[in-house]
Write a structure and sequence with these properties.
Blueprint (H helix, E strand, L loop, with lengths): L3 H29 L12 H22 L7 H25 L1
Helix pairs in contact: 1-2, 2-3
Protein name: Cytochrome C oxidase subunit IV family protein
Keywords: Cell membrane, Membrane, Transmembrane, Transmembrane helix
Pfam family, one: COX4_pro
Length: 99
């Protein structure tokens, strides 16, 4: 049986790991963006797709871990995941349509 202090310690570790992952994805997206380092700007849509995926991952991490959705009912978590997929697919579709 897990106690409240065990759960709190696990939650604190998860927040730290999430923060590390968010920092890493931010640095990676910054590094990949044109004009920063050796990122090939000729990749175009593939590069933008990678940055959009990183943005979607960051949204999922923030909403799931910092907004405590990981403790929500399963139906809410599934609805959130579907909403995020639709949202980011629409944003990427709008980008592709406009270019």
């Amino acid at each position: 049986m897990t106690t409240a202090t065990d759960r709190d310690a696990r939650d604190k570790r998860l927040v730290v790991y999430t923060w590390i992952a968010l920092t890493a994805t931010t640095l990676l997206a910054w590094r990949l963006s044109p004009g920063h380092g050796d990122a090939a700007t000729a990749l175009g849509k593939e590069l933008i797709a990678g940055i959009v995926v990183l943005g979607a991952v960051k949204c999922r991490l923030i909403i799931g871990n910092f907004m405590e959705i990981r403790h929500a009912p399963r139906a809410l978590r599934i609805a959130l995941d579907i909403w995020l997929v639709v949202l980011w697919a629409a944003l990427f579709g709008i980008y592709l349509y406009s270019t």
